[in-house]
Amino acid sequence: MLRTHTPFALLVATLAITTQAHGQGCVAIKSFSSCDMNAFTNSNLLGKGWTVSTNYRYFKSFRHFSGTEENEDRFTVVNPDGTIGNEVINWVHQLNLGVAYSFNKRNSLLITLPWSYNTRSSLYEHGRTERHEMRSVGIGDIRVSLQRWLFDPDSSANGNLAVAVGIKLPTGDFNAMDYAYNVVPRTDTAGTLYTGEYRPVDQSIQLGDGGFGFTVEIQGFAKLFGPVFGYVNGFYLLNPMETNGARTYRETLSPILENEAICSVPDQYMARLGLNWNVSHKFGLNMFCGGRLEGIPVEDLVGGSEGFRRPGYVISLEPGLDWMRGKHDVNVSVPVAMVRDRTQSVTDKETEVATGKPRHGDAAFADYLINISWSIRLGGGRSR
Q1: What are phi and psi of 43, to 5 degrees?
Q2: Is 81 exposed, middle or buried (0-12, 13-18, 19+ CB in 10 A)?
Q3: Residue pair 42/13 in contact by the 8 Å Cβ criterion
Q4: pLDDT at 42 exceeding the cut of 50
Q5: What is the DSSP string of 220-248?
Q6: C-alpha dihedral, 5 to 9 to 14 to 20, nearest 10°
Q7: Nearest 5°: phi and psi at 97?
Q8: Which burial class, exposed, middle or buried, applies to 157 when counting CB atoms under 10 A from its CB (0-12, 13-18, 19+)?
Q9: Maximum C-alpha span of the chain
């Protein structure tokens, strides 16, 4: 039985399972495909041993924004086939598996494997004449990270800070394909007809980004008063590669989109700040709530930023519950979007300068995200 740590010290270690940036729409903030499960599970506070974790995420994105303004007319447009609404709808189901090995209470290694099932409904990829769906299914980009608590956990029960560095491997398919309707012109005696062909799915539901990346992470907690603690998390993924070769076909829509013919390999970031209340030590129950920021920058910190990306960010209010019992820890949170901003891309800015006319692309965002995590300690050690 661990006696030198408060339940929150253990909780903040498991909260990081759900802290990483993950997609909430057409802004391609990948989950395990590019960045996910942090190395900070409760095994870090229990000493040497293994912890296995799994995390499920779901969201539906359908609200289009240019900047912070919602394009509500997307729901009322009359399409060529007579249907109403040309909004793009993404449904995303992600199952992420992680294995952590703690060398001791301060140092750990984590390997995470993502898997996702994505569906995208739109007119955009199908000649803008009929609504059809495209799908992608499979593993994403694997992450490997090393982390260290800066202060001795045995003497820092009221506050500590951990840092981690890692790599993101390009194991996910960044050129997954499905059938696109009404995109290939063909002329015969009946006139010009359009048929379909297999094309890469949209960047927002690609399984990986094709780049070899580097990650930097922090997490910390501090006792404020009584059973209330503050927590902080931060994450940044550096993707030095500029483009991955996956074609978008956007240049076929307009000559000004020539720069967006190939997918970019963007950086990603996430930050969280909030409060946790230990409701019941006896039953291992905690409640937490805080703010969450996640997004894709317009330009990368390292390497070029050309190619197609939908930059933007989401600011969410994130309430949640955590239950710890024996060797098990279950964490549920529902981040609710408060601010959604599709920022101007490099192409938007270049086109605006060249034409002298304002240009601001859009992207679809979700209203909320469902996050469910479960971790179990193998072998010795208990979470309470």
Answers
A1: -60, -25
A2: exposed
A3: yes
A4: no
A5: EEEEEETTEEEEEEEEEEE----EEEEE-
A6: -150
A7: -115, 135
A8: middle
A9: 83
Identify the bridge partners of residue 64 per DSSP, sorted by sequence position. Answer: 364
Q: How far apart are CA 37 and CA 143, in angstroms?
A: 8
Does pTM surpass 0.85? yes
Q: Which residues contact 284 (CB under 8 A, 6 or more apart)?
A: 7, 323, 324, 325, 383, 384
d(CA 203, CA 125): 12
Element (H, E) at 351: helix 346-355
pLDDT of residue 44: 46
Provide the CA 241 distance to its chain's centre, in angstroms: 19
Digit-coded pLDDT (tens) for 266-293: 999 999 999 999 998 888 899 999 999 9
Give the DSSP H or E segment for 181.
strand 177-188
* Structural domains of the chain ordered from first start: 7-241+270-298+315-350+360-378 (2.40.160.40)
